[in-house]
Amino acid sequence: MLILSRKKDESIIIGDEIKIKVIDIDGNRIQLGIEAPESITIHREEVYKEIQEENKMAALGKVDLSELAANLKKGVSRKNN
Amino acid sequence: MFVDTSNFGKIEIEESKIIEFVEVILGFEEYSRFTIIDNLEDDIFYWLQSLDRPELSFIMINPLMFVDEYKINVSSKTRKMLELKGDSDIVFYTIVVIDQSSGDIRTNLRAPIIINAGNNKAAQIVLDEEYPTRFYLFKPDTAVEEIG
Question: Does chain B have fewer CB atoms within 10 Å around its N or its C terminus?
């Protein structure tokens, strides 16, 4: 991993099109500003990983949907009680 | 066209039912062509079936059936990607997880599947709003008892 030191208001440039700027530093919290082409998707890593994991758990083989529907209806009616 | 599926065998779908993910389902980057099977007996689930891998499918729900306050802000980037012209073409679902080990049924409100009904382009988007990735729809009674 390349490690660079930056101060507030300083930036790094990745390739020709991506710029990441340190906007603010407050204790252990850093605000970054990112300029990138629209085709590039930017995620917070932990959110990205969480979603990837949920998706993987959601991908199915075979399931009995009628049993699921029955369970869900039970759950929903319990919520409404 | 005919499509092989693990859950429904060989099915025939019309070309107009092909959904093309322009922003893929995270973790399944190599699969972009799906169809939605919604002519099931229940009125809750929608089945998102891969056209290229028979055993790859997801169960989805309309989150508005389960959540009172759920609002999706579709960014201009997503609008451009899906070639959305207006809000009336927006259809969205959330993916359901059936946790075999705990028996939980939950849905991911943070990353809905959004589809332009006008051209069938789709994306899984990550909302800026802090909706839970795990919104529980059902917990088995045993789990409730354990807590109490």
Answer: C
